[in-house]
Amino acid sequence: MRKGSAAIIPLFFAIMLLFWFIWFLGGENDHLHQVNQLENLQHTQERLIIAAMRKKQELRDANTSLTDTQLDKKVNDYIHNIMILNKIDEE
Amino acid sequence: MKKILSMLLSPVLVTSLLYAKTMTDINFTNVPYTDGVNENAYGDKIMYQDVLINTKDFKIDNFWGKFSDSAQNQSNFTNISTAANVKLTIENSFTCKDGGLIADGCSGQKPFLINSGTLSNPDLKLDRLGAPLPAGEYRIPFDRAANYNVAHDDAFYALDIFRDAEYYKKPAAGDSVNSAKNKNFFAYITALLQDYFSKDTTIYGSDISSPEARDRYIANITFGLQKEYRIAKDDLISTNEVNTANSSKKISLLDYNSQIIENTTGCNGLFFSYDPDSLTCKSINFFGLSQWMPFINSTDSSPELKVKSDSVLEDTETTLLTLAGKLDKTNYIDAKTTLDPVTSKKSFIQEIFKPMSFMMSSMYRFFFGSNSSNLTEVVSANFDFVNPMPLTFIETDGIKALNFVYFELLGLESIYGTEVESCRVNQTKTFFFFPIGWDSKTFTKGVPTNTAFDVGNSYPDQYNELNITSTTSWFFFVPTTSYQVNISTDDWLDWCKRNQGRQTKGLFATFIDSFTSFIFSDVRNATYDGQLDTLITDNDWFVDVYKEKINKELILHLKNINIDSINLTTNGTSTKFAIMKTSRGHK
What we know:
The structure holds two protein chains of two kinds. Chain A is an all-alpha fold. Chain A has one domain (7-85). Chain A is 80% helix and 0% strand. The A-B interface holds A 23, 26-27, 29-30, 33-34, 37-38, 41-42, 45-46, 48-50, 52-54, 56-57, 60, 64, 72, 75-76, 79-80, 83, 88-91 and B 21-26, 28, 49, 51, 53, 55, 58, 60, 62-65, 67-68, 71, 75, 77, 80-82, 84, 86, 88, 568-569, 571, 575, 577-579, 582, 584, 586.
């Protein structure tokens, strides 16, 4: 072996560390992305609660003969459609 | 082998994991419930509801996971949910969402006021024939602010709240659509009516100028009081003054009355009528030709017809009819103006010519006040609504708002009543068919008179129902008793009322009458009225001018409801939602 070859070891570690760091950052990024997406979803959900209640009231005002179950079904469809537009729900 | 198996199975697993579709459900956990206090200070119903919104199989794509074995391409969350407790404020405002007003303009309160004893007044729990109404129902008449008295528990009144002149939505800069809209509220209401109903709907009184107070009142009545000036419990209400000043922002009674009067004079023939200002008409009257022209009636002796109606009353009626019509999808305004399909004139005044439908057994102070106690005949137009609109009245003791009273508007009655003012009678004295002179008397309601008719020296049996007095005089030492029948002002006015306007009787009725009198000419009348008629007619008196006033009244047919029975499904309410608290959960 050539003299001084042991010097490669810290370099090797440094490269390992760099790779680890890239791997770590990537994982953290995925994690943050996930948290972000969940937060977004829950914000959307929160905003949709009032919208859903309003929608139900509007539907009830428009057609008083609908039953509560039918209204709920229509509201569910409405919310599902909004979620599709928001690229959350799948068709 | 194991490797092959896993290679075969993994796509299935991944597929089933990936292709479980993301789906969001909303779940109204319970029916709205009241929690302790069910009413806020403004009289709105407060309810709560729990809502859960849940997203199933929510997937998030991971970028970096592609480079690692331990992470996945995609993360899947089975349930992501948000639960919320929502507060529902249910207001009795009906047209708020319609968009004509600025957002601050709407509240649920309608500007009607009743005294605290009104609901216990037994007179208001009777139907129009005097029979008791079902429990909880009332017929409450509208009264003028000038008549307001804390001690009078028999009417409702209009309140006035200042609105900062904001009766309509201000158009934004460059908004050409809204800029073209009417700024004046009355014009806005007209447009609203015409949009909902037909273009040929005429709105009563639309030709009179529209004072600020009037616009304000219609805005208040349609959309509720302006939010900034909503009335809370224990708020002071000034009932001993009437709000007229625009600058005054205090809550008080409203009493603008641009009086609406309709005159009908005209040369009405049986088949045609002339313009009363025309020369033909005037000459017919001047030369007394109508006596000889059976198909043209003289307007000389026909009463001048007037309808006195407070425009607050008209506005209340028109607005309530519009709102109820909108709720029922029926054109009540049109029904009101074209009640009589025979006449071509599209005016509600035509109702007056319809047969009197009933006699009122009792009416309210508006008619039977101290100076108008002789309302005799009543015509009424009734509207019963399919979907009763909620109305919130403010209950007062004359000083402050005590409480809110909730009603359903079941129906509305327009009532016309006539009130005698005066009568002028003429007598033609003849000598062998030749007129040799005339006499004239005028009787005014409230001025007592006595007219004595000498009826001879024997007791007049044919007038036994009337007021007979006798005087004894000594004539050549022989006592002679003569009898007089005394006729009072009220008798004269009654007679005038029965005998005026004979030309409106119609040919057929006249024919029947003369036929009857020809056959049964000498049958003695046993009734007071009949004897009075015989006496006065036999003395050749006839009605010259008969004046009576026609009043108009509005009665609301209401059903008192408890605030507990108001909910999301109540007609005509609008609900506001607010999230009280949320909680999140995920798996």
